[in-house]
Amino acid sequence: MAALLVTLAPLDLAGVQRGLEAAGFPKAKWPEVVHVVPDLPQNRVGKLNRSEAVALAARLVADGAVSP
Fold first, then answer.
1. What is the greatest pairwise CA distance in the chain?
2. Is 60 helix (H, G, I), strand (E, B) or coil?
3. At 3, is the secondary structure helix, strand, or coil?
């Protein structure tokens, strides 16, 4: 599982995992990789375009920016 994040502060996988642990998220739902992006793809009404977000994550893995 991967996470695409937009953030103003530096953030890494360990920081995300600490936050998820503190919030009580089950470890099975924690991302294995995190990639900070400038923005997330949106549709015309401003909602997350999930198919484009998945494609972006796949491109990042294919380009070697993140490991699968």
1. 35
2. helix
3. strand
**pLDDT (tens digit per residue) in 15-68:** 899 999 999 999 999 988 888 888 999 999 999 999 999 999 888 888 876 555
Q: 43 Cβ partners below 8 Å, 6+ apart? A: 49
Classify residue 57 as exposed, middle or buried by CB count within 10 Å of its CB (0-12, 13-18, 19+).
Answer: buried
In order of 45, 48, 64, the CA distances from 42 in angstroms are: 8, 5, 24
At 36, is the secondary structure helix, strand, or coil?
A: strand
pTM: 0.65
Backbone angles phi, psi at 35, to 5 degrees: -135, 125
